[in-house]
Amino acid sequence: MGSIDSLYQEIILDHFRAPRGEGSLDAPTASVDSNNPLCGDEVHLEVRVEDGKIAELAHSGQGCSISRSSTSMLAEEAVGLEVGEALERIEYFRLMLHGDAEPDEDRLGDAVALEGVAKFPARVKCALLGWLALKEALMTNAEGGANGHR
Amino acid sequence: MGSIDSLYQEIILDHFRAPRGEGSLDAPTASVDSNNPLCGDEVHLEVRVEDGKIAELAHSGQGCSISRSSTSMLAEEAVGLEVGEALERIEYFRLMLHGDAEPDEDRLGDAVALEGVAKFPARVKCALLGWLALKEALMTNAEGGANGHR
Amino acid sequence: MPVGHAALSACKADFPLLAREVHGKPLVYLDSAATSQKPESVLDAMDAYYRETNANVHRGVYELAAEATSRFEAGRTAFAKLVNAPREGCIFTKNATEAINLVAWAWGVRTLQAGDEIVITEMEHHSNIVPWQLVAQITGATVRFASVTADGLLDMEDLAGLIGNRTRMVAVVHVSNVLGTINPVARIAEMAHSVDAYCLIDATQSVPHMPVDFAALGVDFLAGTGHKMLGPTGIGVLVAKPEILEEMEPFLGGGEMISDVRKDGSDWNEIPHKFEAGTPPIAEAVGLAAAADYLMDIGMDRVRAHERELAGYMLEAMSEIPDISIFGPRDLDVRGAAVSFALPDIHPHDIAQLVDQHGVSVRAGHHCAKPLMRCLGVPATARASAHIYNSPEDIDVLVEAIGAARSYLAG
Amino acid sequence: MPVGHAALSACKADFPLLAREVHGKPLVYLDSAATSQKPESVLDAMDAYYRETNANVHRGVYELAAEATSRFEAGRTAFAKLVNAPREGCIFTKNATEAINLVAWAWGVRTLQAGDEIVITEMEHHSNIVPWQLVAQITGATVRFASVTADGLLDMEDLAGLIGNRTRMVAVVHVSNVLGTINPVARIAEMAHSVDAYCLIDATQSVPHMPVDFAALGVDFLAGTGHKMLGPTGIGVLVAKPEILEEMEPFLGGGEMISDVRKDGSDWNEIPHKFEAGTPPIAEAVGLAAAADYLMDIGMDRVRAHERELAGYMLEAMSEIPDISIFGPRDLDVRGAAVSFALPDIHPHDIAQLVDQHGVSVRAGHHCAKPLMRCLGVPATARASAHIYNSPEDIDVLVEAIGAARSYLAG
Ligand SMILES: Cc1ncc(COP(=O)(O)O)c(C=O)c1O
Ligand SMILES: Cc1ncc(COP(=O)(O)O)c(C=O)c1O
Hints:
C: Aspartate Aminotransferase, domain 1; 4-stranded antiparallel beta sheet; binds pyridoxal-5'-phosphate
């Protein structure tokens, strides 16, 4: 299948070694715990939505290089976006990982580097972990809930 | 496996064409319905035990050439035997059909001709149907019951 | 392409076993309703799987596991395509019997109550009777049997009378393995839905022989099995509407069907995995894909046309046998190529044993349909059943062998 | 014959897949705890079955069906011999998971009551946790977990404390798929019997690797699976004491498991058939026989001796890896050749992905043992697990590949 260097690009390893947005928020409007049944990875994600926009985002948890760098890229990209916009990009990212959309730096920022994951189906869930947690947090928030559990 | 003529010997076909002991008894001490789940064959067997001996035996039902001739041979052989003796011969017959005992005409009469059934495992249950029904009837009788069902 | 016996039965060469002899005679295999033979492509696919990419699926990161997972999941895709069902609605089981039991236990045991009714028919295979009896025994529900008409059709009036407010499930065989009857399951699904009951079809004998469109039929559940559709043993499929599966509690518990397991409870994986506990039939799914592809390459319309013609030939040729009783409908539009029959002077068991001497494999017995046997008033029947690899010549050999068996027994 | 690595790992040549390459490197397969590779003889037996004698079993009179039945039943005989169990106590299932579920549903759902307790352990595979949780949820019974000591052993004192008057079942893994721990199941069976509870062992990881004597262990139920013991996917075995099976109600309903089916109820077939509904895994049983024969030809004592030595080599060689944590006991008398480990700087997922580049297949994740992961305080581990075809050289390649993976990620 794919070459290993397309999976572990330098930019991915950089996010892995120095993840952006790690930590927690003082006043999250939603927080979500999500896990990857494949590998046991867990992410705890907190978000503060204000005036329909993502004002702050923080994450913690344990994971492999792919899930951690992917969540780090998400943290960098999502802050400042409107909720609808963020959901759109999450969906676009999902499509790219399934090989159904082209990498688009305007929409995904550094996360375009994760394109190569599409060739490693077992890792797609790693790359999606943080992004789907954000989606859940935003949906929870839309529904007015303060805390999403599953 | 075995040759077909060892399965359908003339003496077997003779019992099949003119079964002995078909009918029913006026005063059975036990009666049993038994069936072969393999082919749907059914035998209804009635027996009258007097002074520890099989005084009368009758059977009816539907079956293939092997089950009908085997029950016919049984009817011929069993009348007059003591209960314990009959049970012993039923067991001996069972062993022969599994290839674990030699055909012995003193013990089995015409039923030695069924030796060849051992080579057709799917037919062993046909050959045993009536014999196991008698066993059940004799056990029922021993326990003092008048009517065995299953 | 014109359909004709020659066109299809030429594919016989694809089935290695059919070249063998029995008792010194060329094998004439007429027991495909019990299990079908397998084309070379199915055997090669499974063998290649074990020689090239065998690994456990889903949880492995390494190359071999990724390859195994993609070959396994391709089996699901192929079956989904064959029956036009959503992929995530296709659950692998060990056989059709487990597929029906899955519904009976996972849905039935948990939701049925005393007074609820399950409607089935007198022509069901034991696999679509006993699971409901077991569930009824546990829950206090009742199993009701729609009757079969004298010409071997489902009595639709009787069925309509049975379906009512208490009905929770209508479970019907799509094509009878004894009578060959094709039941109007789309209409039956409508009848079930009109009282908010579910409709399950036992498609074990339809999927291998005719076009089956899960979405178009509108049924809620469909049970199929690999070994009768040119595929391997050890695999069956339950197809269900995804929205029903989402609501259903799981059946077997274990690995793969969970998303989390804690000491105090567990969460379930996504469908269809929620219903697939433990290591699935991996090589078998690979074989099933090859079988589905083989059938789709021929085209299910052509398979059906061939077998319809063959059924016509069977009915005609076998009717010539003196004193024969043939069960099931004569109308070729509502029957497949499984023909059950009886003769007054020779027991089905003896027929099967004696025609085997001429190389012919037919089945004798109750065909796992004892209630139907009682309706037909016989303890057992003999049954000849065909598939794409059979030709009219096979039927000729059978008819001749039956004649010989008769003379043999008559002496 | 002396046991030594050379003696046994020479059998590697019998396993066609092990000759392949991955990413241009020779494959080093170290994931046998997930599934084993298959020797040529197993593949040939199944292929020959389909090419020569494929037919449905048990109900057929004709030659082909008689041959198929005898090859199928030979699978039962071979497995029974391998684990020294009575033939009629060996029930074919689709995998070990179904075997455990069979007991949980057929016995548990029908007999457990609120207040009853099922005792399991923290080192169970999900297959021996979730079925009991499901049954507990339906019946009101409680599942209790015996703890694991710091050195990866079952805490026998804790277990003794949990087993009491309310205990109805003690279900324990024989050999842990994560820790490699061999549990003292004969003693556990005695403890269970002392309070009139049943004892079930999950022997999935013991039967392929060491002598297992069902009769001598004295357990009531044993679950095994084909694909980890050099056999095919799609088959598992539940072994049970025949007298228990006689009393038990059936699980799956359908063909073959009945002696009569009437509209108002059904009677069951003899054991083991009472528990085998529908067409069984026929070709798979043929493959299982070949696998059991292959293992018995080597001798399970020699298999165990080889893997014991290999486990020793693994522990030694892997301990040299800087900062490694190795889970499970160090005492070779109580462990098999499955070694789970973790490194502080590299996630198991990345280990598995990166050593795959060097041809090495190892597993990463929770290994279907999430409660155990929580005990160990890790979200996941990497695991290398060996079988008879592995040699110390395989371990050397692994150790080197881990070093390379580390440098790669550290940059
Ligand atoms: C200890 C243990 N128990 C049970 C199982 C389940 O076996 P299967 O997947 O064949 O049902 C496994 C393997 O996955 C195992 O390692
Ligand atoms: C109509 C029908 N339903 C169900 C089954 C059961 O299929 P399986 O034995 O594969 O579970 C069969 C075949 O035996 C059948 O003919």
